[in-house]
């Protein structure tokens, strides 16, 4: 959304050139800005250098942490600067809008202080010093000025035991909350061996801390959010499973927001509302998404902002800026050089939000990292000002900026806080500046009961944020304020009731607690106020009820059970956040209680009944892409009693849900409820869930539902449902499926995944039967390989022999190739070699054989010999060289570099050593030529691994908007040093298989029964877990080293010019509504889309639209549905939401002969031909503002039936969620 269009053009221009930068940087001048703001350079180098965070005190002075000495083992061209890594205080003493005085508060905080929070000390109205908190892993440092001279007299570790020494994923993000506690963040880096040995912490943990009160917390759950008393006592962990949560912000009501960082290309940067005790999703096992939001037990983000590197975050609680920004979150993104603004609207259990931009940088060196509100409500913004960001990179130790932003015409005056009187202290508590608020709060609490009347008056008459601040202060008045907080539980404002409940009963004291000084686990705070808070189970506000659910997590069922029953029934069946709170409160409850609770939901559902229309089902959150989120104004689908039971069963994963689920399935067979039940059963490990699914399979005549049941059985019968594998019901179901042409392929794949070798003779017969569809026979031979059924080896060789002389391979040949590697060992490798060197086999089959042969070390060396002896077909040269140069065995890759050409060191194809980068960076270049370099057909071509606007392969990051993040110099660094900064989702994995093969690639899907690996050549390989001996993450990128060896300097310059132009966002479709399979001609795609309609499928049955999800790399595999015989088709619907009318570009990567329509109008699809493999289909996509219906027809008959859909749009698009997805009709 764009709620403040006048802010979009506010820019931060490059301001100064330094010898460290080789790119052109403009001279110092005020940045360009549109109404209603002025943005000015307030400070620059040498006064400030490499700012990492800032804070502003009550007198308007800017405190800044500087980081100059950072990870020199990664940045070897830089030397340690003695005395650097400082905390400075900057002042404008003459009121001209420029800092003119600098005081070094502390120095040599090596390496790199990150995070900053100022606690001022005032005595009798006079400034007496400050306590300053900063992160410096493994420590949270406390630096104290005890005499008011702005110099740190004391320095000590307030807390110690955090991973991330010399790492920006360490401890950082300090901010004080309205409760006077220090909140801070810890990225996902672990305690190193060196730090563990030196300090005595446990190696490999993220947090291993004993606080000042003897509480020992230990956690290894990646990024972590914490809080502690300012004296170092009562350390608590609030949430886990972030990536690099650089900073946190706490609003006046005690809500905690986190800025969390993603990697290049994943479009997963996010802002999160932290749920106490919540798992926030980073590295979720079994998830295809970056944040795991389709998995129960994960707290979803509030908003995703695409690519970037978010740093600072704050909640604006002033009134100087426009009203649209009051109460909004502001997230500073160094990657995109923006400050994003997110209005926060209470909805359901938390908030809804959107995205706007307060400022947008235009210089490639600008790297805003933090923003803080000044006492007058204006903003100070820190700019790291560097070519590099992320991946532990920096390229400069000499520059930095601080900007000041205020409305046009605003005159800043020197603040003169009055901390001597109650009136002045109340005014301080009402300040938009955090340090001023904290000082006012502290002094009011020091007054004790004398401050109570004034605070009560503020609570009575103030705005909601001021009322909440007063309430937090009243809560800490000795012996007097608790009654005021209890009374606030009945306040008319739900935000105040929620804040009061949070003050009284927030329960994080035992989370990740290893032990305490007295050996006792602290009881839940709710026990002290149970009689006062339990009536809130009937509160009309879902946010209040959600806070009560969290407060009751550890309260015994005898005391909390009835309230939790009410709260469960009150859940609207649509809000994911409330459901996650219920999971935290219910999942470990006793069996009898859960049985009663879940059965009561089933009874309520059957009494009420339900319709067959659209209904809200798990995961209750848009999971189309990493950046998907439910925006303000989007309504979720309706819920009913049955769907609510499904949601609870899915979330809890407890076997007590099986019988209640059976109750609702017996009463009604509404397709969406039945499909939702499948989703829930998948989360339950008890084999009785499989029995219920088998009963349903045998009772229905719906191929789509039966295929889904087979998929579930295949993934679970190998694991927790193994006891049902040889049951009579299982035999009946699989026999029926193998007898059905519509179910046969899915049944074969399920049998293979489940390891049900008893069916091998039947599968062998299917593979031999030439009356079967090719897709059936191919699935059978591939399954036999997976099942290690040796008699199938001869048949695999026969299918390969039948491919001789053909121009293209059939599915049988591809499947046989895969099976042969499992069945024939060294003999199979010999066959692979014969295929590769022979002139008689199709080229596509040879290409498929290369990575299979090279997966064995011995055969990889044999392949290298064949390459050197020129015994390979010329057209295979790029694939073979690429495979060997990037082999997981370092010995083989080194040998390949030595023997296949390419000396050590970066030289261009012209033979020049790349020493003087200026020749490349500043010489003439042409982006059009650079695009040709990017896309050329060679083993080192960029397009082999990268996508740009839907074209190319997903092996490395998507580069569609890389020009927004990096300038030319930093782009060149990553080309020269591909392993210098590897993103999480771009990490390669090496798999050692039981048969001796070694494979390397990206994991695109991971389930309970196996993984799908995508190799450097783009091939997908399904590998069962039973075949994997070892899985090792690689520190080396899949991108070729010494890439520039094959380029001239002009090639490099042109390529950099092209990459610099890539700034257009892309939207990749990760979720569809699917209709089919249908007989050809059964559906009219020009008619308005009706997702509730039932359609004749051409066989006499009716079918309807259902949701399907693509893989992690956005590939939707339709081969099981369509098979290989012509005459079938499926239709895919994508609800596209455009902010305004525009012409976008649709890119469809597929082998199928597809058609497409938007809003009922056919699209003119075209594709490049004449190459060995045709390019993707492309078409202009005329979108109207608001919802649009994109429909894609995919027919059967192609070898590889599936697609990747990408939409290129200047503004970026969203895909419909909930009710917005029903259609645009």
TrEMBL record:
Q: What is this protein called?
A: Cytochrome c
The cross-references to PANTHER family, in alphabetical order and at most eight, read: LARGE, MULTIFUNCTIONAL SECRETED PROTEIN, LARGE, MULTIFUNCTIONAL SECRETED PROTEIN-RELATED
Task: State the superkingdom.
Answer: Bacteria
**What keywords tag this UniProt record?**
Heme, Iron, Metal-binding, Signal
Q: Does the keyword Endoplasmic reticulum apply?
A: no
Q: Does this entry carry the keyword Lipid metabolism?
A: no
Q: Which GO terms describe its molecular function?
A: electron transfer activity; heme binding; metal ion binding
- Signal peptide bounds: 1-22
SMART domains, per the entry: EZ_HEAT (SM00567)
- Which Pfam families does the record associate with it? DUF7133, HEAT_2
Q: NCBIfam families given for it? A: CxxCH_TIGR02603, Piru_Ver_Nterm
Species this chain originates from: Kolteria novifilia
Q: Which PROSITE patterns match?
A: CYTC
Q: Which residues form the Cytochrome c domain?
A: 925-1063
């Amino acid at each position: 959304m764009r709620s403040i269009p006048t802010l979009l053009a506010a820019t931060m221009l490059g301001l100064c050139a330094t010898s460290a930068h080789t790119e052109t940087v403009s001279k110092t001048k005020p940045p360009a800005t549109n109404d209603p703001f002025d943005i000015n350079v307030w400070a620059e180098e040498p006064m400030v250098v490499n700012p990492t965070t800032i804070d502003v005190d009550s007198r308007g002075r800017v405190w800044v942490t500087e980081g100059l000495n950072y990870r020199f083992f990664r940045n070897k061209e830089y030397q340690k600067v003695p005395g650097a890594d400082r905390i400075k205080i900057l002042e404008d003493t003459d009121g001209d809008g420029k800092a003119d005085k600098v005081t070094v508060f502390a120095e040599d905080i090596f390496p790199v202080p990150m995070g900053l929070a100022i606690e001022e000390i005032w005595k009798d109205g006079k400034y007496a010093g400050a306590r300053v908190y900063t992160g410096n892993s493994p420590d949270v440092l406390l630096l104290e000025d005890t005499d008011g001279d702005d110099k740190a007299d004391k320095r000590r570790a307030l807390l110690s035991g955090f991973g991330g020494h010399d790492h920006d994923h360490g401890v950082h993000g300090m901010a004080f909350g309205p409760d006077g506690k220090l909140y801070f963040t810890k990225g996902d880096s672990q305690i190193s061996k060196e730090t563990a040995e030196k300090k005595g912490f446990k190696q490999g943990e993220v947090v291993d801390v004993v606080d000042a009160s003897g509480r020992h917390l230990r956690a290894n759950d990646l990024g972590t959010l914490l809080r502690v008393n300012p004296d170092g006592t009562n350390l608590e962990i609030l949430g886990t499973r972030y990536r690099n949560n650089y900073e946190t912000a706490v609003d006046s009501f005690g809500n905690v927001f986190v800025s969390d960082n993603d990697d290049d290309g994943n479009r997963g940067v996010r802002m999160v509302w932290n749920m106490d005790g919540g798992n926030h999703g980073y590295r979720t096992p079994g998830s295809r998404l970056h944040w795991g939001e389709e998995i129960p037990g994960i707290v979803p983000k509030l908003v995703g902002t695409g690519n970037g590197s978010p740093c600072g975050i704050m909640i604006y609680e002033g009134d100087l800026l426009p009203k649209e920004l009051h109460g909004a979150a502001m997230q500073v993104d160094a990657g995109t050089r923006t400050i994003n603004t997110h209005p926060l609207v209470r909805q359901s259990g938390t908030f809804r939000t959107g995205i706007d931009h307060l400022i947008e940088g235009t210089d490639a060196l600008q790297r805003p990292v933090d923003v803080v509100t000044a006492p007058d409500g204006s903003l100070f913004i820190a700019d790291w000002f560097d070519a590099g960001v992320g991946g532990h990179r920096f390229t400069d130790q000499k520059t930095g900026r601080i900007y000041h932003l205020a409305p046009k015409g605003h005159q800043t005056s020197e603040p003169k806080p009055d901390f001597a009187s109650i009136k002045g202290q109340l005014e301080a508590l009402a300040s938009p500046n955090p340090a001023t608020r904290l000082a006012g709060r502290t002094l009011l609490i020091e007054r004790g009961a004398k401050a109570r009347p004034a605070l009560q008056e503020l609570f009575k008459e103030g705005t909601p944020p001021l009322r909440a601040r007063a309430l937090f202060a009243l809560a800490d008045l000795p012996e007097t304020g608790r009654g005021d907080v209890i009374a606030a539980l009945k306040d008319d404002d739900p935000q105040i009731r929620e804040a009061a409940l949070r003050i009284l009963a927030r329960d994080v004291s035992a989370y990740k607690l290893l032990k305490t000084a007295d050996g006792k686990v602290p009881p839940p705070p709710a026990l002290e106020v149970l009689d006062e808070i339990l009536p809130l189970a009937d509160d009309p506000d879902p946010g209040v009820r959600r806070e009560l659910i969290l407060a009751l997590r550890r309260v015994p069922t005898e005391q909390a059970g009835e309230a939790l029953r009410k709260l469960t029934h009150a859940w609207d069946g649509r809000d994911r956040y409330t459901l996650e709170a219920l999971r935290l409160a219910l999942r470990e409850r006793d069996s009898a209680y859960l049985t009663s609770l879940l059965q009561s939901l089933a009874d309520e559902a059957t009494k009420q009944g339900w319709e067959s229309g659209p209904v809200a089902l798990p995961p209750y959150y848009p999971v189309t892409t990493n950046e998907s989120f439910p925006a303000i104004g989007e309504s979720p689908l309706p819920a009913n009693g049955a769907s609510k039971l499904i949601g609870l069963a899915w979330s809890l994963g407890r076997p007590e849900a099986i019988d209640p689920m059976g109750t609702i399935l017996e009463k009604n067979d509404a397709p969406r409820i039945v499909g939702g039940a499948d989703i829930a059963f998948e989360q339950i490990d008890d084999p009785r869930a499989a029995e219920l699914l088998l009963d349903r399979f045998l009772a229905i005549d719906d191929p789509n539902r039966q295929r889904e049941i087979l998929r579930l059985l295949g993934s679970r019968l190998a694991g927790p449902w193994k006891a049902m594998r040889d049951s009579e019901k299982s035999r009946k179901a699989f026999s029926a499926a193998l007898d059905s042409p519509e179910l046969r392929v899915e049944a074969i794949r399920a049998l293979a995944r489940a390891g049900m070798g008893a069916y091998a003779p039947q599968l062998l017969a299917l593979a031999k039967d030439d009356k079967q569809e090719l897709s059936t026979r191919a699935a059978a031979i591939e399954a036999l390989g997976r099942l290690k059924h040796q008699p199938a080896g001869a048949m695999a060789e026969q299918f390969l022999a039948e491919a001789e002389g053909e121009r293209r391979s059939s599915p049988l040949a591809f499947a046989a190739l895969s099976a042969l590697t499992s069945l024939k060992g060294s003999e199979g490798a010999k066959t692979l070699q014969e295929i590769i060197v022979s002139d008689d086999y199709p080229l596509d089959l040879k290409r498929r054989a290369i990575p299979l042969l090279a997966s064995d070390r011995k055969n990889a060396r044999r392949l290298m010999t064949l390459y050197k002896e020129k015994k390979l077909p010329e057209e295979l040269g790029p694939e073979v060289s690429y495979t060997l140069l990037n082999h997981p065995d370092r010995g083989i890759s080194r040998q390949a570099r030595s023997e296949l050409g390419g000396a050590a060191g970066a030289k261009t194809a012209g033979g020049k050593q790349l020493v003087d980068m200026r020749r490349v960076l500043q010489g003439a270049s042409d982006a059009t030529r650079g695009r040709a370099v990017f896309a050329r057909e060679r083993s080192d071509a960029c397009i082999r691994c990268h996508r740009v606007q839907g074209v190319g392969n997903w092996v490395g990051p998507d580069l569609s908007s890389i020009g927004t993040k990096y300038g030319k110099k930093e782009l060149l660094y990553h080309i020269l040093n591909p392993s210098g900064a590897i993103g999480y989702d771009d990490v390669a994995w090496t798999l050692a298989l039981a048969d001796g093969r070694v494979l390397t690639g990206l994991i695109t899907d991971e389930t309970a029964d196996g993984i799908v690996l995508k190799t450097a050549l783009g091939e997908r390989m399904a590998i069962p877990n039973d075949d994997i001996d070892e899985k090792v993450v690689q520190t080396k990128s899949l991108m070729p080293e010494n890439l520039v060896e094959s380029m001239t300097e002009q090639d490099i310059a042109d390529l950099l010019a092209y990459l610099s132009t890539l700034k257009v966002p892309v939207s990749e479709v990760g979720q569809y509504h699917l209709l089919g399979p249908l007989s050809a001609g059964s559906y009219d795609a020009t008619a308005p889309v009706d997702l509730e309609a039932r359609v004749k499928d051409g066989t006499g049955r009716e079918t309807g639209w259902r949701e399907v999800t693509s893989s992690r790399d956005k590939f939707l595999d339709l081969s099981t549905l369509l098979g290989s015989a012509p005459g079938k088709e499926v239709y895919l619907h994508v609800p596209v939401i455009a902010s305004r009318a525009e012409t976008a570009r649709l890119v469809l990567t597929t082998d199928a002969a597809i058609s497409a329509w938007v809003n009922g109008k056919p699209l003119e699809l075209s594709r490049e031909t004449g190459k060995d493999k045709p390019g993707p289909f492309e078409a202009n996509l005329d979108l109207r503002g608001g919802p649009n219906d994109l429909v894609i027809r995919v027919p059967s008959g192609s070898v590889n039936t599936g697609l990747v859909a990408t939409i290129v749009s200047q503004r970026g698009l969203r895909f419909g969620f909930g009710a917005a997805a029903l259609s645009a009709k």
